Amino acid sequence: MDRIRIVGGAELNGAIPISGAKNAALPLMIASLLTDETLQLHNVPRLADVAQLLRILGNHGVDHGVAGKRPGQTAVTGQSVRLRARHIIDTTAPYDLVSKMRASFWVIAPLLARMGEARVSLPGGCAIGTRPVDLLLMALERLGATIDIEGGYAIARAPKGLKGNDIVFPKVTVGGTHTALMAAVLADGTTVIENAAREPEVADLALCLNTMGARITGAGTSRIVVDGVARLHGAEHNVLPDRIETGTYAMAVAMTGGDVMLEGARPDLLQDALDTLVQVGAEISSTNEGIRVRRNGHGISAVDVTTEPFPGFPTDLQAQFMALMTKAKGTSRIRETIFENRFMHVQELARLGARIRLDGDLAYVDGVERLTGAPVMATDLRASVSLVIAALAAEGETTVNRVYHLDRGFEALELKLGQCGANIERISHS
Ligand SMILES: CC(=O)N[C@H]1[C@@H](OP(=O)(O)OP(=O)(O)OC[C@H]2O[C@@H](n3ccc(=O)[nH]c3=O)[C@H](O)[C@@H]2O)O[C@H](CO)[C@@H](O)[C@@H]1O
Ligand SMILES: C=C(OP(=O)(O)O)C(=O)O
């Protein structure tokens, strides 16, 4: 298993190209199941999750190919992926595939919409908490599907097709909104999704679906209206930049000090997190090139945050922000409201000398003068990168084990940080 070795203490200076968003690329790839024509996606990050989803889609009959680089794509980021689901050969997504990646459960919606049936293994929980799908199934039922749970599988059937209807989500769910959208686009009549997730990745999916011939308005707001169409066609679409990767590197610069241009990053995708970083003591400016993050000289201050659905502070940046707060002046209170167990990084940060107390969904982080390197273990994707951020500012050497978590969501991490001056290397073990 690969490990990452970091010797802390170096400032970050230079430029980091921001990759396409994992959490947009995955539902966009799944949308290829909705048409028998080709969907070509550009700016798809090279990640383990993308490779795994290609395997899952292949099982349903999707042909794929990497279609070559576009001008402007660098060696470090992105690939263009061509997907064609000319024939769906299997409407079952088995346990051994779905259990490896939660987002693959979303295939249930396009398979049902196009084929009238889908049999998809329930995803189960993961390190950050339970990952329920009751609201995703509720959305499909509202569109006329029958749902049976048998042998660990959700079996959705709509032999006469789906019918547009109102779907009111009792809480904001990104997966639920993706599911509702992908089912409603081919339903007969109009669907109104109330309390829809406003995450940019939902709007990106809707934009792509509209390019494929769907009729969706209001994506990016909490009320989305979908007028169903009989069929969708092929399209070409650019995946939007990864706001979580952007925020992660912004926090790394705030942690180490320095001056880095996050190329291609869009401030509108993470305004709340950027405002928080300004309160912490970083300087943030937006240019045509991207977002410039600087911190020179003075230290960082403790700031409280609460994770919330978009446009609030994202749960996917909570671990990274906690790493930053370990060296802030004062005590920061960090409340996690989306996942009940997303504090697995706390005990590993403690190994580097962080002082953090947990009380239910609240973490109290008392800033310390110095962190010191140690061997640490990644427990999930964002937790693992929080350890990298802490290690960059720790004295001495840190080894981050279980790097496969990082490879799920951070493209060329050691290259991107290394070219800005970080002392970081991957130690490969075959
Ligand atoms: C709103 C939110 O921040 N969602 C995050 C969530 O999306 P993801 O799509 O995984 O999760 P949801 O947005 O669906 O879940 C939001 C909340 O709703 C609950 N829920 C969800 C579905 C369901 O059927 N029943 C139910 O009760 C969840 O337990 C959770 O507390 O994790 C992703 C990966 O970390 C993040 O990128 C998303 O930003
Ligand atoms: C936890 C994440 O991914 P997933 O929902 O696929 O587990 C994430 O993107 O931070």
Automatic annotation (TrEMBL):
Domain Enolpyruvate transferase: 8-416
The entry's keywords: Cell cycle, Cell division, Cell shape, Cell wall biogenesis/degradation, Cytoplasm, Peptidoglycan synthesis, Pyruvate, Transferase
Catalytic reaction annotation: phosphoenolpyruvate + UDP-N-acetyl-alpha-D-glucosamine = UDP-N-acetyl-3-O-(1-carboxyvinyl)-alpha-D-glucosamine + phosphate
Active site: C126 (proton donor)
Residues reported in the UniProt entry to bind UDP-N-acetyl-alpha-D-glucosamine: R102, R131, P132, V133, D134, L135, D316, I338
GO molecular function: UDP-N-acetylglucosamine 1-carboxyvinyltransferase activity
GO biological process, one term: cell division
Location of this chain's protein in the cell: Cytoplasm
Record pathway: Cell wall biogenesis; peptidoglycan biosynthesis
GO cellular component terms attached to this protein's record: cytoplasm
Function statement: Cell wall formation. Adds enolpyruvyl to UDP-N-acetylglucosamine.
Family, similarity comment: Belongs to the EPSP synthase family. MurA subfamily.
Protein name stated in the entry: UDP-N-acetylglucosamine 1-carboxyvinyltransferase
Species in which this protein is naturally found: Pseudochelatococcus contaminans
